[in-house]
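Handout, section B. The chain below has 217 residues.
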Amino acid sequence: MEIKVVRQIMEWNEDCHKELQKILNDNNVLMLNVMGSPGAGKTSFIINLIKLLREENLNVGVIEGDIAGKVDAEKIAAMDIPVVQLNTDGACHIEAMSIKNIIPEFNLKHIDVLIVENIGNLVCPAEFDIGEHLKIALLSVPEGDDKVEKYPLMFTRADALLITKYDMKEYFNFNQDKVIQEAKSMNKDINIFKINSMKGEGMQEFFDWLKKHINHK
């Protein structure tokens, strides 16, 4: 499968986020903005999520955001999933205008869920709405339990927090109670899940939550 590669256009339109949501809503597409540090497990999570969506006969599209390269997009394409690679050429986040320019690459009539893997970063991606309906933040156990306190905006704005690589907690001094308490104190509506993407553990709990939003769409 050929992977299309596009370059991010560094323009910003305050109305672009709402315009995108209208386009998606008109086509009954739910868009997820998956955010987290490099190595947090975003691509592994997306691969597992695609498998669960397929089991429900739901169609998926993916936008892979990276500063350069297309390694992750190739993994998604190997699953026979429509995917577009968005390279930002150094920018630390994706902007709504770039998503708007990519949307025509997909046949939205044949997509139920559109997943955006944002640039690996806990700072900039949290600041920009990109047309998404749900913001999904990933925090891996090896990153440490101080990230919620250090990067509050990411977790304040997230609809769900996934504690990934949860199977590694015995090897790290990771205080999950601290993470959950701090996240809930700054965002009482955040939903928190513990995930081991390598084995798929915890994915079903997340998917049960996500399905409520999919069914609503």
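Note. The radius of gyration is 16 Å. Compare this with the example in section A.
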